[in-house]
Write a structure and sequence with these properties.
This protein has 267 residues and is of the alpha/beta class. It has ten helices and twelve strands. It has a seven-stranded mixed beta sheet with strand order 5-6-8-9-10-7-12, with helices on both faces. The chain has a five-stranded mixed beta sheet with strand order 1-4-3-2-11, sandwiched between helices. The protein is elongated, with a radius of gyration of 19 Å.
Length: 267
């Protein structure tokens, strides 16, 4: 078997979830490490945290593919007493290379948004695409799909909570007959108008703002709000499986984000 390097991992991710789909503000790709380092085993995690680094070390991994980049903005200094500094120190100390697959994973044609919509029971999936030039095919900034059977807003919220094993769900609106649903993993509130224009009766996302809720409800769109972390954590298994299929080395999933809330919120 040929040697697997960080460069090969980057090329594998780029083949199924091209980095060109990442938003301009994002920081995807190699964050910590060297492209020529040999990879023994890979950990996939929603975030680069102290516990995920420790788990990777325990599992014998020297590469972590994380969804959220641990570094977004240019760094002028690395203070090991700061949280980010501690992460960088710990990764370097244990020889951990860190790769981020963030919005390239979310919005590529076979990425997180599409996988999440399928997991939530939608069929006949189509992309909701923002105008983004120079992409090989339309981005899946959101997804619109059909339910197998029409339901009302409350029933849809309960079904989504069960399908994703989410610890909580909020719903807004009282549409009695929903058959078309839009989905955007993470903080997708700004996409509600595109969801409505695409024909959705309900929109599923996270971190909704007050004015987004108010405007969407006035426009007749029901909303389902989930945990940002739990939505995206649900797609990490698919990311791990794709990486393993492309590179052939062992992959361990570090999961279980933010499961402490247990209330169904209603409006």
């Amino acid at each position: 078997m040929s040697t697997v390097t960080i460069e090969k991992i980057l090329k594998a991710i780029d083949s199924f979830s091209p980095f060109c789909y990442a938003y301009e503000w994002d920081n995807c790709g190699l964050i910590i490490g060297s492209r020529d380092r040999e990879v023994r085993k890979i950990a996939v995690s929603l975030d680069l945290g102290i516990k995920s680094v420790e788990k990777a070390v325990q599992e014998g991994c020297n590469c972590i593919v994380t969804h959220h980049p641990p570094v977004f903005h240019p760094i002028k200094k690395i203070d090991f007493s700061s949280y980010t500094g501690k992460l960088i120190e710990k990764a370097i100390q244990f020889g951990i290379n860190v790769i981020a697959a963030h919005t390239n994973w979310d919005t590529s044609p076979n990425g997180g948004n599409k996988f999440l919509a399928s997991q939530l029971g939608l069929v006949e999936l189509e992309p909701i695409s923002l105008p983004r030039p120079n992409l090989p095919s339309p981005s899946w900034d959101g997804v619109i799909g059909k339910l197998k059977f029409p339901v009302n807003t409350e029933a849809l919220a309960e079904e989504i909570k069960a399908r994703g094993s989410f610890s909580w769900v909020k719903y807004y609106g009282d549409c009695p007959n929903i058959s078309t649903v839009a989905v955007c993993e993470g903080a997708g509130g700004d996409l509600w108008q595109e969801a409505l224009r695409a024909g959705a009766s309900a929109f599923v996302t996270a971190e909704l703002k007050h004015h987004q809720i108010q405007e969407a409800l006035d426009a007749g769109l029901s909303l389902i709000e989930l945990s940002h972390a739990q939505m995206e954590d649900l797609t990490m298994q698919a990311l791990a499986e794709k990486i393993k299929a492309y590179v052939g080395v062992d992959v361990v999933l570090v999961t279980g984000a933010f499961k402490e809330e247990k209330i169904i919120y209603k409006r």
